[in-house]
Structures are given as C-alpha cells and as structure tokens.
Write a structure and sequence with these properties.
It is a single chain. By secondary structure, the chain is mainly β. The protein is 5% helix and 38% strand. Strands 1, 2, 3, 7, 8, 10, 12, 14, 15, 17, 19, 21, 23 and 25 form a 14-stranded mixed sheet that branches. Strands 43, 44, 46, 47, 49, 52, 53, 55 and 56 form a 9-stranded mixed sheet that branches. A 5-stranded parallel sheet has the order 26-28-30-32-33. A hairpin with a 3-residue loop joins strand 50 and strand 51.
Length: 641
C-alpha cells in the first residue's frame, strides 16, 4: 500500500488538468491511489488532417485498467474538477458503462451520439449539462440517483423518463425543451422543482405529484403549450411556473399552499377556472396577467395586497371577490379588464388604491359596474377615495369576517389551529375578528416550546409563560399583530447566588443536571449549598464540586461561606448549619441558648436571636449579603431572590 500511495503522489505531482495516461481510445485521469476517471474517448483514425470519426454503434468502458502493474477501478465519467470537459469526441450510438461508475461529471456526454444508455446503480448525481446536445432518446435512471444537474438533458428527444423513488433534486433547466416528453410523474422524495426545469416541453400533457412540495419555481412548466392536466398530490408552499401553458383550462391550488408567486399563471390563455384556498396569504405581481379566458375569481381571504398587474388584460374577467384583509390595491391591478362589472368586497374598511388617475376601463367599471359591500359599510365606501366613484353600491351580509394573523414558526415543531397544521416558516392564521383562538403546539421529539411572542405596533408581548400542556389561548390580536413561535431544547434560568457577586444567571437545558466547582476566597470556605432550598452540600464530589438535581424549571443555587480561621470547626464537626431559602435563613442544630447575631456587611446589627435547640427560621429582606455570627463561627450568605 505504501508503494501505491507513493506512485499516486508522483503521478499527480507531475500532471496538469486532463489525462494522466491513455490506453486505446480512452484517456484516464487518476483520482486516487486505486481509482481513475474517464476524461476522453476519441474513436477515430489518424490521417494527415488529424482524427477522422469512425462509425460505431457500441462502445464499452472497462471496469478496471492496468497502469504500471496496478489495477485501477473506473469510477467516474468526466473530470469533476472542470467546468467544461467533453468526454466522447465522436458519435457513439450505444455506450456500455461499468457497474463501478458512481459519478457522471459536467458535460460528460455532451455532443456525443449516444441514443440509449443504462446508468449503473451506485450513481448518486448527474453533472451539469452531462447529456446536453447529444441524441439521447432512452435512458435508465438508477434507484441510487439523488440529484440531476442543471441542463442535464436540455433539448433532448427523450420520449419518456422514469424518476427513481429517492430523487431529491432536479436543478434548473434540466429537461428544458425536451419536446417529445408527454407525461411527468414525480416521486414523493422530490420537494423542490427548480427554475424552468420542464419549460418548453411542447408536447407535455400531464404532470403528477404525490406529496407536499416546498416550491415549484418560476418558469418550471413555462410554455408547455399542450399541458392540460396537473394533479398536485399535496400542498406547494410556494407555487409558480405555469406561465404560458396556453391549453390549461382549470387549476386547483392545493389547500395548505402559502404563496402564489409572480407570473405563476400569466398568459394561460385558456384558463377558465382557478380555485385558490384561503391558506394562500401572499400573491406576487401579474399572477393572472393575460389570462384572457378567466371570467370569475375569488381571492383568498388572507391576501392583504393586490399587486401590480395581478389581473392585467384579463379581458373576460367579469366578477371578482376581494377578501376582508386587502389593505392596498396597485393602480394597474385591473389594467385591460374591459369586462369587469361586479366587485364584491368583504372588508368593512375600504382598501386604498394606488392612483387617483383612472384608466378608461376603471371609469367604465365605476359607471356600469356594481360594487357589493358588507352591511353597514356603504357610507364608509361612499367617502373613500376610488370607491366613492361607483354609481351602483349594494350591501350584503358577509357572515363571519376573519382577521389574517401572520404566524412564523422556527424549526423544531409544528403548530395547529382550528384543524390546520402549520410547519416551519410563515403562514397566516384566519381567525374570527375580535375572537379568541387557541394554538396547539406539536414539538419534535427532542424539542419543546421555548417562547411565543405577539409582535405588534406597540411592542412585543411574551406569552411563553402562558403555555399549558402545549396549548395557548390568545384572547385577541393587537394592531398589526404577528405571532412568532420558537421551538428548541427546553430551557430554564439557573441562578447562582454567592457573596457580593450577586446573581449569575445561566440559561440551561431542562431535564439535565449541571455541575460546577467553587473556588473559595482567602479566609473563607464553603459552609452550605442549597438548590431551591434543598441542601445539596454533600451531593457533589471532592474539592467543592457540586452537582445539581435534574433541572425541571427555573432554579436557584445559593452558596453560603464561613470564615476558616484556626480553631473554627467545620460544619460537619459541630453539627450546626445555616441554609438560605427564598425568604430568609434556617439555622439547624444550634445549641440551646446559643446567641445568633445577624449583621449587614457594613457591621450593622439587625437581629439577635437565642436558639431554642431546634431549627430556627429567620426571615430576612432579599437583595443583601448577611453575616451570621455565633460563638464558634461566622457565615456569609446572600439573600438575593
């Protein structure tokens, strides 16, 4: 082994980027003392004009290669240290890879003539552009595959693709322009669809997912002009990517989806029906721009801002219902909506409109359209900018109105409210206006609720102390209120009180014990140590090392010292002890008739008591250090709560 390592070091030291050696048509780069990567396959014949391609229909890469008497295993295609490394320099229809391959590097098969390939099990990632610009029509992806690199199959004539169950990542533009793909069925393990992954797949007709997704990013299915069926098997926290899907006629956004991002359905010219759940609390710009067939939309009730161009040039839009939490409408949100004639608003307080200068379409809406407002709010709308221009205003009973309360959850658990379960991130609670609501906390196995905050225009209210049995009832939400929930390892305050230092507060994890070593001052020694009033003086180790009981909540460790002059007996020798608690001190085992004097640190005598021979409790004000003197000892003890 020592000889092999030395040989490897010599080879690498003398090589630059590219091949270290060549055998036959294949050039190799040594990647470790036992492995190599294929960095070039050049099948041709040497002529006076250089290499001339030779036709071939099948080429096999060996599993091992002999170099200077050493067997090296082929584990990679392409040089992973390079941003550009084309491997197959001539057209090969069918490439047989060895089962030892674990890595396909960037650009590895780019421009090759490969039409069909089986990737061996063991490959976990495909490099960027690894099959781009080749003639691949058929490929087997192994179950081991976790990641497909950016542009990996861009523009290929693939007719179908079967994704392995463990796939977690497909990067940007990976299948962009694969015009022969007709159906996509994505595995449960996939949580993010990156930018423009399937954009321009002109014959794609159906997309299916089976579980919750973190996001479908911008342009993911853009201009898939024959896409008619989208089956989402779970919520998509951030939804976008269907712009230009001109054959899509209906779409149901799954319950639990939180955001519909900018341009999500722009130019879906056949879209007639869109179902938006009330879990959506944020919508971006131009979400439905140029959806020329869309006739009626009910916006989610948690939306607070109708953004720029949301419905621009939706020329068939006739009826729009706006939720009670909308506070602002961008001035061109309805630009080009020539047919809009009925606006229903649920808010009793009129929202603001971006401009006082109105397009002809808005002027026509004022004159010909009907505005429906909640009962009792007609007068408010008649006085409000923008709304006061409507000629026809009617009132209706909106039923229960809801307030949208932003809810932010850190990692470590989930929160349930009124049957909905919210995970890490920000969402919006819909609670009846002015009503109390209850949060139920669902911490992960090793976590607890650390704090709950209501942040509002007047400051922050800390509500964690009110959490009982993982539940918290909030009576009302203050102006501009937001609720933040923090999970973590449960913690408590451990206070160490000793001498003039006062209190040292340490934030500690609950359900653990803690130890420390006490370093005594000159002329003093440890007399007693209490934990929440319990004597733990002798429960530690040697050399003044103490160990607390298991911490279950806020606790105080109080350390009392005594003078250590010659002739003064230790506590364990004479039996008398002085212990501190939250209200004063307890003197144990003092002899009957013994005088106990209590002084402040400045020498002022404040109490003088004779022992009856039983335990004596002496109440003392907190916030000071006291000296307790008897005939045989002087003890210094803090009374800081």
């Amino acid at each position: 082994m020592r000889t092999k390592i030395l040989l490897f070091c010599l080879l690498v030291a003398g090589s630059t980027f590219g091949a270290d050696f060549k055998q036959g048509y294949i050039s190799y780069s040594i990647t470790s003392p036992t492995t190599v990567s294929v960095v070039e396959v050049n099948i041709g014949e040497d002529t006076e004009w250089g290499f001339s391609p030779r036709d071939t229909t099948r080429f096999e890469i060996p599993e091992t290669v002999d170099f200077n008497g050493h067997q090296l295993t082929v584990t990679a295609i392409g040089n992973t240290e390079s941003s550009w490394q084309q491997v197959f320099l001539t057209r090969v229809d069918n490439i047989i890879l060895p089962m030892t391959i674990t890595t396909i590097g960037d650009n590895a098969f780019r421009y090759s003539g490969v039409k069909s390939i089986n990737l061996p099990d063991g490959i976990k990632a495909l490099g960027e552009s690894c099959f781009k610009d080749c003639r691949l029509e058929e490929i087997h992806l192994p179950d081991s595959l976790k990641e497909i690199g950016a542009e990996a199959f861009e523009g290929l004539p693939l007719k179908e693709i079967h994704f392995p169950k463990g796939l977690t990542t497909i990067k940007r533009e990976a299948f962009q322009g694969c015009q022969n793909l007709m159906e996509i069925d994505l595995p449960d393990s996939l949580k993010i669809l990156d930018y423009e992954v399937f954009s321009g797949c002109l014959n794609l007709r159906k997309v299916t997912t089976h579980s919750d997704l973190k996001s479908i990013n911008s342009g993911c299915f853009a201009y898939c002009s024959k896409l008619t069926t989208v089956v989402l098997g779970g919520k998509v926290e951030e939804l976008s990517g269907f712009n230009g899907c001109s054959a899509l006629e209906s779409f149901t956004v799954p319950e639990g989806t939180l955001k519909v991002l900018s341009g999500a359905f722009a130019a879906c010219t056949s879209l007639k029906e869109i179902v938006l759940p009330n879990s959506v609390y944020e919508m971006g710009q131009r979400v439905f721009s140029n959806c020329s067939s869309l006739a009626e939309v009910t916006l989610p009730r948690a939306i607070n801002f109708i953004q720029v161009g949301t419905f621009s040039y939706c020329k068939s839009l006739k009826t729009l219902t706006i939720g009670e939490n909308v506070m602002n409408i961008a001035d061109d949100a309805f630009e080009g909506c020539k047919s809009l004639r009925h606006l229903t608003v649920r808010g009793r307080t009129p929202s603001s409109y971006g401009s006082s200068t109105f397009s002809q379409d808005i002027l026509d809406l004022f004159n010909e359209g009907e505005l429906s407002v909640p009962a009792g709010s007609k007068e408010a709308y008649a006085k409000a900018d923008f709304w006061k221009n409507f000629k026809q205003v009617t009132e209706y009973d909106p039923g229960t109105l809801y307030q949208a309360v932003p809810l932010t959850i850190n990692e470590g658990g989930r929160v349930s409210c009124d049957g909905q379960i919210f995970s890490e991130g920000t969402a919006a609670l819909l609670v009846p206006e002015g009503a109390a609501f209850t949060l139920t906390f669902l911490p992960d196995e090793d976590k607890r609720v650390r704090e709950v905050e209501q942040r509002h225009s007047g400051g922050i209210d800390y509500l964690g102390k009110n959490v009982k049995d993982n539940q918290l009832t909030i009576s009302s939400v203050k102006s501009e209120g937001r609720v933040w929930v923090f999970f973590g390892v449960a913690q408590a305050n451990l206070d160490i009180v000793q001498n003039e230092m006062g209190r040292v507060r340490i934030l500690v994890d609950i359900d653990k014990t803690y130890g420390c070593r006490i370093i005594e001052e000159a002329g003093w020694r440890v007399h007693s140590i209490t934990y929440n009033g319990e004597d733990i003086t002798n429960k530690g180790g040697k050399e003044n090392y103490i160990q607390t009981p298991v911490v279950k909540g806020d606790a105080v460790v109080r350390i009392a010292l005594e003078q250590s002059q010659t002739g003064i007996t230790k506590p364990e020798q004479n039996g008398m002890r002085v212990l501190g608690d939250a209200e004063g001190i307890v003197v144990e085992n003092a002899k009957a008739g013994e005088l106990i004097n209590i002084y402040r640190l400045n020498g002022q005598l404040i109490k003088s008591i004779r022992s009856t021979g039983n335990n004596v409790h002496i109440a003392l004000p907190s916030g000071e250090i006291y000296l307790i003197k008897t005939a045989t000892k002087t003890i210094k003890i803090p009374m800081i709560k």
